[in-house]
Each structure stands twice: as C-alpha cells, then as structure tokens.
Specification:
Blueprint: H1 2-13, E1 16-20, H2 25-36, E2 42-45, H3 55-60, E3 69-72, E4 75-78, H4 80-90, H5 108-134, H6 137-158, H7 171-176, H8 183-190, H9 194-197, H10 199-209, H11 212-215, H12 221-231
Parallel strand pairs: 1-2
Antiparallel strand pairs: 1-3, 3-4
Helix pairs in contact: 2-4, 5-6, 8-12
Amino acid sequence: MAAAAAARSQEHEEAVTCVDFWCNEFGMRARIALREKGVPFAFVEEDLRVRRRSDLVRRMNPVHRSVPILIHGGRPVCGSLNIVEYVGEVWSGGQEQEGTRRLLPADPLERARARFWADFVDREVYGAQTRFFTSRGEAKAAAMADLLGHLRRLEAVLGDRAFFGGDGFGFLDVALVPFSAMFHGYERHGGVDMAAECPALVRWVARCAERESVRGVLPSGHDMYEIHMEFYNIE
C-alpha cells in the first residue's frame, strides 16, 4: 500500500508539458482540464501556421504529428479528448476549482453519453464549422444551417442545467467550450445572432467564462476570427 501510494505521488509530481498552438480549439481542452485540476504545466507553442512540424511533435506524436500533446514525465499522451480523460484520472484528487467534482461522470451510462456528445462535437460541429468558413454561396449557407442545427442539438442536451456535467463543470463542457471562441466569427462571417439563435448555449458560455480555467485559456472572439481568416484564406 505504501509503495503504491509513493508511486502515485511520484507520478503526480513528474513534470507536465502541454504542446499546442494558442488558438487550437482541441488543444484548449487540454489546458482547461489541467487548470481545472490545478496541475502546474509548461506550455510549448507549436505554430500551426508553419507547415513542417517541430522535432518535438514528430518525436512525441510520430503517428499523426499533430497537437495537442501532453508530456507527463517524458511520456506523451496524444488526442485532445484522450488527454482530458487522462488528466481527470491521474489527478482525480487534485486541487479542483469550485464547482468541479470529476471531469467524467461516475455513472457508466453518463460517461458513455458524455463521450458520445464530445465525439459529436469533433465530427459534426467542427466539420460544419470548417465547411462554413471554406465554402461559398449556397454551400456556405447550408453549412451555417448545419452548424446551428448541431449547436441547438447540444443546447437540448444541456437543457436547464448550469453545465453539461450538471451542477459541476465536466468533460463535455471542456470539450465544447473552446468552440465558443468562434461564435464571434460565426456572427461576423455569417451574419447570425448567436444570442438569438442559441440563447441557452450563450448563457452557458458566460457561466464557463467565469471559471479561471476557461478565462485563462480562451482567446477573444476577435483574435480567433482574425487568425482563422488567415487559416481559411478569408478576405
């Protein structure tokens, strides 16, 4: 028992590094999760505007050569949702922010649902967002309609709860809230009023933004739109 406890303590104390780019919605998840759990970490920026990935990324994620990467004690953990789960498990007894119990629900069915909707964000929300910014004419309007439909579906999942995790900020909140930094871009580029289209979701964003973990990571909507204009060649 003592040896196991000592091993866990050593694991917690090992150096933690997050490799990411400041405006990467997927990487923001990792940084928010680490802040939620009160885990000190170093941030190494990987500029995604540069075509060739750094030696560090190619060494730590040789399969996909992508970020975010969490490096814990010299060992890499890749994939944004995988990282969030890892952080929640390893630092399950960390110094969480008020209103956070555990990132993934204790109930197996609720865990499965949280994972399902997080995957929905990655596949449907991100996919529609990309089509919206890269298409023109009728295709752009259709992509915006799809995007709003996906967000309204998530709004229905939220219901009248404070957070997707219930009273406490949790896994699905971490998965989705980085995308809220693009709401300004939806309004600027698509002429939509997010407060009118998804009012409950906009109120949820405001509650999330009160948290230090989110406030310290989420860029301004203006900055996100400006850099994505560059990414998507928007004039």
